[in-house]
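User: For my dataset I need records formatted as: sequence, then structure tokens, nothing else. Please produce one.
Assistant:
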Amino acid sequence: MKQTVWTLSAALIGVGMVVAQGPGGQVAGRANGPAKGQVARSPIQSPASLPGPPTVTPQTYPAEQIKAGELRFTSQCGFCHGRDAAGGETGPDLTRSKLVAEDTRGDKIGTLLRQGRPDQGMPSFNLSDADLGAIVAFIHDQKSKFEALGGGRRAVDPSDLATGNAAAGRRYFNGAGGCSKCHSATGDLAGIATRFQGLALLQRMLNPTNGRPAPPRPKVTVTLASGQTVTGPLATEDEFTIVVLDSSGARQTYEKSAVKFKIDDPMSVHFDQLGKYTDGDMHNVFAYLDTLK
């Protein structure tokens, strides 16, 4: 049972996680974690263990539109919100979103997508009416499917995650994992287990930016075929294009196939690490961090 809980917890947090809230009508986490002297604890009954808000205006959409929306959602929104819209790397579960529940054929979702929420790290999207309608159709279809399942989800207790070997985690932290190149048990991580426990601690380990103010946009350098380079903050990126903010703040869009580009993102080390962890490594590093009190 604990192995299953661990797998689900990791899926919800780093390899697709939602502890902090953001877009979708939910509240963002505190900027600097819990107040001094307080501990961030996973609640006994998390919001995910309760039914989501019901759809105010039930809606149906053509199967073709839903399928088109699934493809567009996966490429544009899936990294943050998960391929199934049930929560991902940094975005909340849209099937449980109050905004989605109150949306009628895109009247709220459309505004959010086109304006974005820069303060929470969500960019705006320049979508055609057809693409926007397809994404809305997919999100509502997913919400309907999750509502049909009924029930809630079991909350994760800190004891469910207590399966690793702290000594092995310490060796990995200081050795093969390379964690000590940027972090220190007596420096930035000192006392972290007194401030965060359970899922909150696992979230900080796997995805430190989640639930905190949006980090600065990664810098990207684009080299054109002519040899000219353009450097600026990354606005958005998908499978085919990369969008850069130039010195005037204007959005410059480039086809990836026609340029060379390099993205400088300090958080990429954490994201890369997600693909390197074995289950044992993840359990052990978590157990080690849980000793830093």
